[in-house]
From TrEMBL:
One Pfam entry name: Glycos_transf_2
PANTHER family: GLYCOSYLTRANSFERASE, GLYCOSYLTRANSFERASE 2-LIKE DOMAIN-CONTAINING PROTEIN
Name of this chain's protein: Glycosyl transferase, family 2
UniProt keyword annotations, A-Z: Transferase
GO function terms (MF aspect): transferase activity
Coiled coil (UniProt feature): none
Protein's organism: Salinispora tropica (strain ATCC BAA-916 / DSM 44818 / JCM 13857 / NBRC 105044 / CNB-440)
Gene3D superfamilies tied to this protein: Spore Coat Polysaccharide Biosynthesis Protein SpsA, Chain A
Lineage, broadest ranks: Bacteria, Bacillati, Actinomycetota, Actinomycetes, Micromonosporales
Span list, region Disordered: 341-369
SUPFAM superfamilies, sorted: Nucleotide-diphospho-sugar transferases (SSF53448)
Bias-annotated ranges (Low complexity): 342-354
Record domain Glycosyltransferase 2-like: where: 36-138
Length: 369
């Protein structure tokens, strides 16, 4: 009996029970992806499934999504296996080594020219990669870091960060760390907003073992290279879920280790930025000790190596005096109200300026402790 030839749409034989949608997915997987998406995760199957689906639903469809499971995690492996999308690749690690190591593992496996990061508790809006690829491909430097605004969603409010773009002569490290408000900062960059060349990410890997300010550390070191510059997509492209009642590893880092880290990257920031990081970011960790000696130690370090301003001192005092939950409530109230009454200016696109040494470096940090 004569057998009908197999259906070879998209260049693949089609099995008798194969659905047309799977043909397209197999075709996409036969091409080199435009973007490799790297998602580190650990023991959060529901959250990482949501993150993966937001990546797979991008308007740019020729992608690969690499989920690096940080240690033994049968629940996450089962949840990801249920998605059944050939663009999804799961890399389980036998031992837990932290998100920076997991990102480096994902970058090592990436096949695309560009790599984008997504934290397992965040989501991308559908055109995120499309917007960033356009900016990356038209950038005036060989190795742009393309970031974007995001929607910061907390249990109490929702608002857009960063609230403004860098001013023409403003050092980027100060833009991203020096406050203009007592309960919030204006500049911001977060891991899930970052897209960069895979070659750059292999040249400048994440620092394994660093538990907080991983974006800040990486961005500072990357922007120290002459061929790198920060490019901002001005529209919000990411949903940043800040459930402050959920345990977060990044919030448990000892203040002393972070102060040692800050001292190690002192040459990459200005004195103003150094003081802002010490009193605001590290101060928020140190304040949990309620120890007067720790209070004096961090303050003395900021004054010795940095140049604090009046608002830095006031910020440090309120961090020590006001309970975190009340600070967060005040921050959300101020930012959410201002987002309605005075939205941030959003030009079509912007490339962050590269100031003279040592201020040419950018920084990635949360100013909202």
């Amino acid at each position: 009996m004569h057998k009908a030839p197999p259906d070879t749409r998209a260049g693949f034989p089609l099995a008798r029970d194969e659905k047309p949608l799977s043909i397209r997915r197999r075709y996409l997987m036969s091409r080199t992806p435009d973007v490799s998406v790297v998602i580190p995760t650990c023991d959060r199957p529901a959250l990482v499934t949501r993150a993966v689906q937001s990546a797979l639903n991008q308007s740019v469809t020729t992608i690969e999504v690499i989920v690096v499971v940080d240690g033994a995690d049968a629940g996450t492996l089962a949840a990801l296996a249920a998605l059944r999308d050939p663009r999804l690749h799961v890399l389980p690690l036998t031992e837990r080594a932290g998100a920076p190591n997991a990102r480096n593992v994902g970058v090592a496996a990436a096949r695309a020219e560009w790599t984008a990061f997504l934290d397992d508790d965040d989501e991308w809006l559908p055109h995120k990669l499309e917007v960033q690829l356009r900016l990356a491909r038209t950038a005036t430097v060989p190795a742009p870091i393309v970031a974007s605004r995001l929607v910061n969603r907390t249990p109490r409010a929702e608002f857009v960060l960063p609230r403004r773009l860098p001013e023409p002569d403003e050092p980027i490290c100060e833009y991203l760390t020096v406050r203009r408000g007592l309960f919030h900062g204006d500049g911001f960059i977060q891991t899930s907003t970052i897209l960069a060349s895979t070659a750059l990410l292999r040249r400048v890997p994440f620092t394994v073992g660093l538990r907080r300010q991983q974006e800040l550390d990486w961005t500072l070191r990357a922007l120290a290279h002459d061929d790198v510059r920060l490019v901002m997509a001005t529209e919000p492209l990411v949903l940043w879920h800040q459930d402050e009642d959920r345990p977060r590893i990044s919030l448990s880092s000892p203040w002393k280790a972070q102060l040692d880290w800050l001292r190690s990257i002192r040459t990459l920031v200005t004195p103003r930025a150094y003081a802002a990081i010490a009193l605001s970011i590290i101060g928020s960790m140190a304040a949990t000790t309620r120890d007067p000696h720790v209070f004096r130690t961090v303050l003395a370090d900021a004054r010795r190596h940095g140049r604090p301003g009046l608002l830095d001192y006031l910020t440090y005092l309120q961090i020590w005096l006001i309970p975190p939950q009340l600070r967060h409530t005040l921050r959300d109230h101020i930012l959410a109200r201002r987002r309605v009454s005075a939205p941030a200016q959003t030009p079509a696109a912007d490339t962050a300026p590269r100031p003279a040494e040592p201020n040419r470096t950018g920084a990635a940090a949360s100013q909202n402790p």
